[in-house]
Amino acid sequence: MADDGMTLNDISGRSDNRLKAALADVTDRFIAANPNSHERAQKAAAVMPGGNTRTVLHYEPFPVAMVKGEGAYLIDMDGHRYTDFLGEYSAGLYGHSNEIIKNALKEAIDAGVVLGAPNRWEGLLAEQVCNRFASIDKVRFTNSGTEANLMAIGAARAFTGKDRIMVMESGYHGGVLYFPSGGVSALNAPFDIARAPFNDIEGSLAILKANRSELAAVLVEPLMGAGGSIPARRAYLDALRQFTREHGILLIFDEVMTSRSASGGLQQRMGVTPDMTTLGKYIGGGASFGAFGGSEAVMGQFDPGLGNPLRHAGTFNNNVMSMAAGYAGLSQVFTAERADELFDRGERLKADLNDCCAKHGAAVQMTGSGSVLGIHTSTNEILSPKDLNDSPDKLKLIHLEMMMRGFTYAQRGYISLCLPMTDGDCQGFVDAFADVLSTHGDIFAA
After folding, report:
1. Which among 242, 240, 235 has a CA at the least distance from the CA of 270?
2. N or C of the chain: less Cβ packing under 10 Å?
3. What is the pLDDT of residues 211-242, one digit of tens each?
4. Count of alpha carbons within 13 Å of 244, Cβ hemisphere only?
């Protein structure tokens, strides 16, 4: 019992009331500050469910609509300027309006958008990808990371002659490949799935052993993105690599988000090489993009010169915009040096934010690796999604307060850095974050 006679339940109740009051206040200020975005959201709701056609972009009370992006900055419909720490969920690696990317897109568009034939950029982009990723001898392009993962799973099943795929609890591999803990997405593709606990060597090996005769592949993110920006441990990936190699199971790394971690992806930085890799996001230079690749043997199944190849169609697989912008970005902008610089900047930001939380005695922490990070409202060690104990209202309070201070990222706490971002931009984020924690210190007290 507290000194003034209050019970712990009383204290908790007062804390909840302060949180509700603070959230109501910032919500009112947010709505008042964004009348044009509010009106747009209401009108859009008349013709789209929830005014939305991309679920992840929704947040409460409504998402602001952006009208312009330049470098690391965004302007919304009400004229507010934000430093962009969302980075289009990692697809916006190059920032907004990169001149090299813009020129490549203009050249491609001026030459004809839908050619219905091979074009001069796709082979060049494929060469860049194969040269960067040790796991990719040959590659094929798609229009999204979702498609890339679907095709990689299909290739693994065809190659091994087995059907089952092992995934991780709370793993996300696209709109039809989401595996929430304790539930099943009704939109999922109907694959034969075995689930394993992320970062749990003993638990995952038990699932592997029980399913080894039926498993075609293990599909894993070397850093869980939607699952909380949680990096895989090197020992965990090593264990998966050893078992799958010994038992003829393909190991697929979903590097749709994490390929930006080094010139050769997070697999290069961690020193673990899978059998196949899926890609997406930034590699299209800001245009729609996905890719899957692997060994000559696995990818050779798609050779249309064979008598009975796997057929991989897609009208826009080699669309000139993605091919041209992607090639320009990888060949001229995202060098190995720039990749390392961005990774290091993200690591510094993570350390600075965690120091800030400790200084303010806040039960808040940052997870992630390099330029993909996550905010969590707890202090316990987070090794897998089962360790998450976030308060949605606290995350919402931080997010809206940061928006009001000119910084945008995902309300769930997801952060992604872009190449034009500076140390000054990161310091501005830390300073604003410190101000939020100071303003609401009692709510976030550890």
Report:
1. 235
2. N
3. 999 999 999 999 999 999 999 999 999 999 99
4. 27
